[in-house]
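User: I'll paste a sequence; please echo it back and then give the predicted structure.

Assistant: Echoing your sequence first, then the prediction.
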Amino acid sequence: MSVRGRLRGRLVKLALAGWFAVMVTLSAIMLGRHVVPLPRPSADDTALAAALTSLRRPENAARFFAVHVLFAECRCSQRIAEHLLTSPRPPEVSEAVLLVGENAALEASLRAKGFGVTRVDVDELDTRYHVKSVPILVVLAPDATVRYAGGYTTSKQGPDPRDLDIIARARTEGTLLKALPVFGCAVAEKLRSRLDPTGLL
């Protein structure tokens, strides 16, 4: 084989090795995004409780308050939003949506269903509410103590959101409930960079 032929063979092998390494890296990142739980807010975070309590309407001060934190660009959040719009909601509980990003049609649909909607940007969600990933459910008692802060399902894009059961248990059990893992989208910039250092996904 000529020198040129051997050089071409080596270049082909290097290209294949590089392609394989890139594919393995991207596959690992995508797998991690589907099976690794994301951070959930602490139920002991008084700043979170105070910030969410400020969203409650005064006439609902004596009711339990459920806040759904969703991201307009997150597919998992969109699935939860669809569930909220199509499921019967507990009439004795006040509910609101903290919406990151902009989706006018979704916002209008949620308001028509009876949800209070507050729109925030990524920075405010992190700095004021201390929430770094979505979708997240937080349930507060009338005294503003957090009874639940976590996810909706036991797996990524799980088919059975458990918010109605969680809200009912939070009202009757009188203690902080064990939180389900959060499977969805990272919102905080540092967390997104950690989960996807390539910035490609």
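The helical segments are 3-35, 46-53, 75-86, 104-113, 122-127, 163-173, 189-195. The chain has two domains: 3-35, 46-192.
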